[in-house]
Amino acid sequence: MIKAQISEIKTLLGSTKNIVIVPHKNPDGDAMGSTLGLYHYLKLQQHNATVIAPNDYPDFLQWLPGNETVMIYENDKDYSQTLIDKADLIFTLDFNAFHRTGDMANSLEESDATKIMIDHHQQPDDYAKYTYSDVEMSSTCEMVYNFIEMLSDSDKIDARIATCLYTGIMTDTGSFRYRSTTSRTHKVIGNLIDKGADNTQIHNNVLDTNSYSRFQLLGRALQNLKVIPELRTAYITLSQEELDKYQFKKGDTEGFVNYGLSLKGIIFAVIFIENRQDNLIKISFRSKGNFSVNQFSRSHFNGGGHDNAAGGRSESTLESTVDKFISILPQYKNELSQT
């Protein structure tokens, strides 16, 4: 984001505005951490800001400061639409294409509000007047920290903002394990701790939330784990019946795909999760090294994301989706062998 754009945004934020802040559908830690972190910053500047999430999010994120103020679009579409219609500014965080917001997409696209995108996913759509896009960033939360710093307001970061931003960086970097974690990321994290983020408590709040039924579901997922050693690939399937049997709730399968990736010799891991309510198969892709799951997902499963972490979907049955995946894999034998 160039200095001229920052100057224009500072002017826009120089007077009280009606602002809507939106994460993607099925928001994760980075999505909720970035939106709520920005929310607290804008409220400190006396703006009328509201976070509107397309749908609900896991319990392990509902302790975040400001959680009680979040509007859920699918639960109150009329009031959410009123806020969107009245908005002077709309911030879209942790996504770069309107379809990532599900049922909110048309409302956002048709809004006359000035749109500001902050996101680190590849190949952004050109819908925002102001775009801060950096695919090398660890997380959108780190970008929000930078955005506040660009506005010369890093001194305004308080414990609430710091807690939200720390949470998103921590979750999107796998507790600082992924390649996107840079020395700059650690400096930001250090500053957030200095500003009041309680790192121990945040990790406990996010990670120490397992239930007996979730462990049973994990056990089933691991029983379903299949390995294709010659293609250095592992995949997991979970049917709707299996989800129902173990009382699945939103967020329970978070991180399951990484078990496949942790196997010795595996560089490509996938989980296929059936969702009969939405009539689709939700797919998560993870990889190590240079194998781009972003390109794989975009090419074959209507998705995208990052080089080593991406999502996709299929409107076929679980069985036919897996069959398609297996049939495609040999096309990537060279890439999977060389990575």
Describe this structure in words.
The chain has 339 residues and is of the alpha/beta class. It has two domains: 3-207, inorganic pyrophosphatase (n-terminal core); 212-338, Diaminopimelate Epimerase, Chain A, domain 1. Helix content is 40%, strand content 18%. It is built from 14 helices and twelve strands. The protein has helices at 3-12, 29-44, 77-86, 105-110, 140-150, 159-172, 183-194, 199-207, 212-223, 240-245, 257-261, 293-300, 318-328, 333-338; strands at residues 18-22, 48-53, 71-72, 89-93, 114-119, 130-133, 226-228, 233-238, 268-275, 280-287, 304-305, 309-314. The strands form two sheets. The protein has a six-stranded parallel β-sheet with strand order 3-2-1-4-5-6, with helices on both faces. Helix 2 (29-44) packs parallel to helix 5 and helix 2 runs antiparallel to helix 6 (159-172). The longest helix is centred in the N-terminal third of the chain and has 16 residues, at 29-44. The radius of gyration is 20 Å and the shape is globular.
Count the beta strands: 12
Task: Give the number of helices.
Answer: 14
Query: In which order are the strands of the major sheet placed?
Result: 3-2-1-4-5-6
Termini, distance in Å?
33 Å
Based on secondary structure, the structural category is: alpha/beta
Task: Give the low-confidence spans.
Answer: none
State the fourth-level CATH superfamily of the largest domain: inorganic pyrophosphatase (n-terminal core)
Just give the CATH class of the largest domain.
Answer: Alpha Beta
The residue fraction in helices comes out at: 40-55%
CA radius of gyration: 20 Å
Averaged pLDDT, please?
94
CATH fold name of the largest domain: inorganic pyrophosphatase (n-terminal core)
The H/E string reads HEHEEHEHEEHHHHHEEHHEEHEEHH
